[in-house]
């Protein structure tokens, strides 16, 4: 990779105890749409994590003693400040991650601000439980308190969106945090740190340590003074985190990968289903844990669906992420692009057909993006359920389309993977959508839509897709410790 000589490299610093502090070593961070190194990220380890945990511990007594209303006002102020800088955040997220500027402007950054606003509000509305035992002269009630220093670890696909989805509930509940964003997408977290003081977040309440999973991430997971870890990322990393944290009996929330099915019955409204399923397959380059990657279509409409689906997928424009007319930006890294391409090659070697995209259609890129990590939306068919393309999470712009005959059969096939995060069901038959939704092994089921979220309700996966749920009540329960108190009068 070539250095971006024309402009100075952006150098990030850790944010510990309310101050930016340099690190002794750094990692290169690439602009995925050009292949240039444009930023240097601290390569933190034990020492930096130790300092951040100490700052968070020191800040805990004051922050946890504040009323929910005081914390709520600060979270709202932080939301205002992010919204005020929305365009700068969106530009930074697009450059750092490769996602389109349109997606960053309309999804990532508005949602990051909304995460703070949502938990600023929801923290004011929780009630605890109370029961009476008149015969014993007793009343019992529960009280909830923040746990302490929360360790938050997030992935590269929706950088600020997913990090704030953890920071907001953690601090709304009165915890202090040490956060570690992905080393590949650290810039927007660093930008957010610059707003904390102005929002009124006291020093040490939010600390951000940048670096790799193996060094900074593990130091956080293994730190004895961090009793809870909220992690979003791959299933493999979650297994490692579970092992490393086991000696400390830590509380874990794990939001992991998916291999999400779309089930399309022959009475589906295809005018809605086709554009939505193209979006659910290729939005954010397919780099969303909720993206569809196995499309089961009932036999009677299979060939019509396939024809219209491929035509729609071909309309998606791949190119420079900062061009507002572009739908598909760059993938996160050269290694990831290779991995995704290899899945397509493996499918072809097994006898599957690639109907559009990788290896089939020409990819024309603007001169400045020739070394970027781009790939066209790719549709694979005639692929077996046992194929790795139908079993493993690809996490790129690749989707498989296969036919099915009966409801019973498609439920069995949809459930025949190790993951269980999200599914979509398309049918005009209300009885059928309820029946199928109940039987799918999936934490989320959308019928006749995709990605419509009410943040109040539980979010998370079954099986290898995770442990625990996030949402208004679920995040409150995760980030607080409950106590039952009995009073005899
Ligand atoms: P990843 O597991 O490689 O990394 C996630 C984070 O964990 C990064 O910050 C990384 O540095 C850190 N990490 C890596 N090894 C670690 C270790 N040993 N100890 C502590 N921390 C460590 O995942 P990724 O490639 O960044 O993200 C893509 C994955 O995330 C996909 O599998 C995707 O499905 C999943 N994801 C899930 C959800 C969800 O809500 N369920 C949302 C988004 C992404």
What does this structure look like?
By secondary structure, the protein is an alpha/beta fold. The protein has 2 domains: 10-257 and 465-488, 3-Layer(aba) Sandwich (Aldehyde Dehydrogenase, Chain A, domain 1), CATH 3.40.605; 260-447, 3-Layer(aba) Sandwich (Aldehyde Dehydrogenase, Chain A, domain 2). The protein has helices at 46-65, 68-84, 86-97, 101-122, 159-172, 187-199, 213-222, 235-245, 270-282, 302-314, 334-349, 388-391, 407-414, 430-439, 472-478, and strands at 10-11, 14-16, 19-21, 26-31, 36-42, 130-133, 138-146, 149-153, 176-180, 206-208, 228-232, 251-255, 260-264, 292-298, 353-356, 378-381, 398-404, 419-420, 422-426, 444-447, 462-463, 466-467, 480-488. α14 links the parallel β19 (422-426) and β20. It is globular. The termini are far apart. The structure holds nicotinamide-adenine-dinucleotide. Residues 153-157, 162, 180, 182-183, 212-214, 217-218, 221, 232-234, 237, 240-241, 255-258, 289, 393, 395, 421, 461, 466 line the site of nicotinamide-adenine-dinucleotide.
CATH structural class of the largest domain: Alpha Beta
Strand segment count: 23
- Oligomer kind: single chain
Over the alpha carbons, how many angstroms does the gyration radius reach?
A: 23 Å
Q: Which molecules are bound in this entry?
A: nicotinamide-adenine-dinucleotide
List the uncertain runs: none
Label the overall shape. Answer: globular
Helix content: 25-40%
CATH fold title of the largest domain: Aldehyde Dehydrogenase, Chain A, domain 1
Tally of helical runs: 15
* Domain unit count: 2
The N- and C-terminal alpha carbons lie at a distance of 74 Å
Q: Average pLDDT, to the nearest integer?
A: 97
Question: What share of residues are in beta strands?
Answer: 15-25%
CATH superfamily of the largest domain: Aldehyde Dehydrogenase, Chain A, domain 1
């Amino acid at each position: 990779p070539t250095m971006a000589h024309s402009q100075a490299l952006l150098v990030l610093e850790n944010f510990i105890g309310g101050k930016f502090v340099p690190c002794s070593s750094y990692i290169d961070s690439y602009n995925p749409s050009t292949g240039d190194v444009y930023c240097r990220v601290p390569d933190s380890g034990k020492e930096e994590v130790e300092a951040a945990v100490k700052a968070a511990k020191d800040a805990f007594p004051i922050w946890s003693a504040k009323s929910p209303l005081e914390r709520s006002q600060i979270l709202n102020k932080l939301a205002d400040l992010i919204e005020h800088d929305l365009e700068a955040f969106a530009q930074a997220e697009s450059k750092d991650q490769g996602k389109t500027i349109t997606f960053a402007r309309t999804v990532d950054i508005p949602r990051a601000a909304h995460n703070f606003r949502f938990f600023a509000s929801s923290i004011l509305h929780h009630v605890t439980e109370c029961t009476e035992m008149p015969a014993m002269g007793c009343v019992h009630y529960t009280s909830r308190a923040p746990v302490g220093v929360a360790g938050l670890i997030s992935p590269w696909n929706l950088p600020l969106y997913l990090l704030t989805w953890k920071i907001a509930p953690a601090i709304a509940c009165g915890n202090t945090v040490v956060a570690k964003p992905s080393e590949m997408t650290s810039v927007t977290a660093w930008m957010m740190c610059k707003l904390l003081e102005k929002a009124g977040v006291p020093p040490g309440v939010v600390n951000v340590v940048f670096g790799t999973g193996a060094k900074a991430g593990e130091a956080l997971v293994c730190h004895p003074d961090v009793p809870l870890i909220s992690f979003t990322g791959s299933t493999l990393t979650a297994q490692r985190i579970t092992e490393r944290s086991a000696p400390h009996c830590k509380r874990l929330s794990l939001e992991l990968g998916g291999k999400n099915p779309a089930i399309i019955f022959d009475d589906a409204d295809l005018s809605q289903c086709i554009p939505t399923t193209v979006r659910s397959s290729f939005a954010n380059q397919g780099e969303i844990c909720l993206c569809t990657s196995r499309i089961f279509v009932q036999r009677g409409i299979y060939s019509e669906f396939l024809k219209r689906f491929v035509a729609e997928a071909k309309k998606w424009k791949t190119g420079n992420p900062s061009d507002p007319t572009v739908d598909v930006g760059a993938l996160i890294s050269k290694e990831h692009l290779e991995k995704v391409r290899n899945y397509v090659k493996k499918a072809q070697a097994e006898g599957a057909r690639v109907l559009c995209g990788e290896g089939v259609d020409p990819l024309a890129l603007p001169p400045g993006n020739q070394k970027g990590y781009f790939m066209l939306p790719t549709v694979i068919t005639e692929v077996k359920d046992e194929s790795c393309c139908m079993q493993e999470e690809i996490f790129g712009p690749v989707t498989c389309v296969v036919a099915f005959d009966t409801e019973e059969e498609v439920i069995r096939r949809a459930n025949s993977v190790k993951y269980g995060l999200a599914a979509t069901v398309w049918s005009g038959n209300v009885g059928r959508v309820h029946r199928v939704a109940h039987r799918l092994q999936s934490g989320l089921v959308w019928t006749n839509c995709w990605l419509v979220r009410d943040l109040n309700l539980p979010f998370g996966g079954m099986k290898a897709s995770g442990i625990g749920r996030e949402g208004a009540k679920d995040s409150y329960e995760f980030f607080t410790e409950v106590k039952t108190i009995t009073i005899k009068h």
